[in-house]
Write a structure and sequence with these properties.
alpha+beta
């Protein structure tokens, strides 16, 4: 009986929150999750652009010379393209949900690199906290 009672107290403790510190940690973890979800969706949405950059480099030996190959890059507030390095930069913008205004301008940058056998690797750098970006960035 005491084991069941202690489990009940643990469950109540978790449900009601130990204290404000615990609640703020839960809230921050949820905020990080929301940001990670938004960035994950944006990363998924640039899949075709990553393929176009890779194919162009494979065929011509150079990255596309400007951002006209995709309409996404015309939306400068969310996506940008650096033709010198083939980089794709994904920004948090005013279009993203409320509560993210302190993060406007923060970004994830994907940079392509080729190894000797012709395989393309995308490296990821970010100005966000590691808890706010999807793995493996």
């Amino acid at each position: 009986m005491s084991m069941k009672l202690s489990k009940l107290f643990v469950i109540l403790f978790i449900l009601l929150g130990a204290n404000n510190y615990g609640n703020s940690q839960v809230y921050q973890a949820y905020q990080d999750y929301k940001i990670r979800k938004i960035m994950s969706d944006k990363i998924t949405s640039i899949g075709n652009e990553r393929i176009l950059i890779a194919e162009t480099h494979l065929i011509t030996g150079a990255y596309p010379v400007d951002d006209s190959f995709s309409e996404k890059f015309l939306k400068k507030k969310e996506f940008a393209y650096n033709p010198k390095k083939g980089q794709i930069i994904i920004f948090i913008s005013e279009k993203d949900p409320k509560g993210m205004s302190g993060l406007i301008g923060k970004n994830i940058t994907y940079t392509p690199s080729y190894n000797g056998s012709g395989l393309l690797n995308w490296t990821c750098e970010t100005t966000l906290k590691k808890t706010q970006v999807p793995y493996p960035c």
